[in-house]
Amino acid sequence: MYLVTAQEMRDLDRYTIEHIGIPGVVLMERAGLAVAQAITEHFAQPGQAVVLSGHGNNGGDGFVVARHLAMAGWRTTVWLVGSEDRMTTDTRTFYEVCRQLGLDVKTFGPERRDELRRWLETADVVVDALLGTGIRGAVRPATEMVIRLVNDHARGRVVAVDVPSGVETDTGRVASVAIKADQTVTFAYAKWCHYLRPGAEYCGEVVVTDIGIPPSVAACRRPAARVNHPQWWREYLKPRSRWAHKGTHGHLLVVGGSRGMLGAVAMAGTAALRAGAGLVTIAVPEGQHDPLAAKVTEALVWAWPGDGQGRFAPGSAGRIGERLNRLTAVAVGPGLGRFTGEREWLSELLRQTDLPMVLDADALNVLADHSDILAHRKGERILTPHPGEMARLTGTDTARVEEERYRVAKEWAQRHGVTVVLKGTYTIIAFPDGTQMVNPTGSPSMAKAGSGDLLTGIIGALLAQKIPPSAAVPMGVYVHGLAGELAVTSVEHSVIASDILMQVGPAFHRLLSDRVRT
Predict the structure, then answer these.
(1) 324 Cβ partners below 8 Å, 6+ apart?
(2) 58 annotated to bind ligand
(3) 260 marked as binding residue
């Protein structure tokens, strides 16, 4: 499934109308019918509906909703919040249909505030078809008044048409006020605001419905973003051959684990094995070899020169060359720590190999101070920052990163020629070519120390199996989130990273089972 901006959706609509030949009124009819069906499927029997329609095309969808609800036996009242004179051609068509059918159509004005409030207090469902995808900035006073009435007085289910009114489609911003919906029924493709705060918090359940735009239209006008889904990388998700051996599935090197932080590198290495890597070697500073070797039994442990304080010595990165021909991918950062000579150390790692490399944790903090060393890279580089690390990389603060998630990730990926995995609710994957993915899997249970180390290991394992980064990264993020969901067996509060680790196998099993069924 694609993920579109308001302009991309307008372009797709226009292409469908002008080049495919499907009239706009047909698309509007299909959209309104889809919303009406979502409502009738939720309720066992008809009730009372209030439909709030603006004068734009979103309002036209609302008039279609009202007609179909009335035909299904609902007691339906439509409120026009806007100007009849400013209606679009298609909206006017369905407005006149409602009037010809004798539906109760009222025009809102501030003097009718109390009347609308009474209707909202008794309605079983309120349909928000006020603004749609076109809003930018604050809403007009009359519309703001209606939105506040809905939020304060609606007692029934609130269903938004396409986008909750007041939410900016491309950013999720709410400049003044927005409808707080229980469900949002959107058309053809999801919109960015369905995944970006604060807008996503206003959407409720998001349902994407087909309105008749042919798949070939997206092929001609391909959107720049997608919702992460197995359809994009399923070809690389295959059962194991009975003739496979450990060398068949790659060899990942995980580098990190300074004194006091061995747990991070152990978790990453173990996650890599759970994600299918045939071999995992963990490189740690001298002095940390024996404690780690006692902790992990499946991975190899490799000691690099240390600084005597439990951290890597400045020149130790050169050791990677000794076993480079045995490796197929590298992950750097879990439990790495900060140390003297870290810039030259990381630069040397980047120069030494053209193998795909995941950079996380303190490797990102080194890059934040010395981003110029990315120019030394030879191969694919995947960065997996949380919002705080992304803020350090961009020289801003966490609040701005959260406000501009998809823009920040996209700009940094393009500027530096790397893949950025900006972690969080609805993790964003930004590729160096400007395309992006938003990941739908995950759980609040994953907001625990160690969860990010698991992701590093999972992505590293998939890269080690020679899956292209364009598939390995979204697959790893999806599996990681699914494992987090499966780990919740009682309450989200109690999940720890090792619980998520234990669900990596079941997550792959579920995906492989789905693949067999499809």
Answers:
(1) 352, 353, 355
(2) yes
(3) no
